[in-house]
């Protein structure tokens, strides 16, 4: 049962990469602004960094969508 839930959640995220990337981009910007306005919010900075890392990972996954690796020539080695 746990693997079924895991596969369902990853399928949901990979089918909606643009939506999730936009959500985490907005969350990152909001947390950065809140960190700037509040000033001493160390936890807000940590959350902004975390959401920024997730945002970057989603952007990298989106850029690899549809990529087909070239065939390797076995005799060339």
UniProtKB/TrEMBL annotation:
The answer on whether this UniProt entry bears the keyword Membrane reads: yes
Keywords, A to Z, come to:
Membrane, Transmembrane, Transmembrane helix
Highest taxon listed in the record's lineage: Bacteria
Membrane-spanning parts: 17-38
Q: What is the name of the protein in this document? A: Uncharacterized protein
């Amino acid at each position: 049962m746990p693997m079924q839930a895991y596969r369902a959640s990853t399928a949901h995220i990979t089918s909606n990469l643009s939506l999730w990337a936009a959500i985490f981009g907005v969350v990152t910007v909001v947390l950065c602004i809140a960190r700037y306005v509040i000033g001493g919010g160390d936890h807000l900075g940590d959350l902004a960094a975390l959401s920024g890392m997730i945002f970057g990972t989603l952007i990298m996954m989106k850029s690899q969508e549809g990529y087909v690796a070239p065939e390797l020539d076995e005799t060339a080695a």
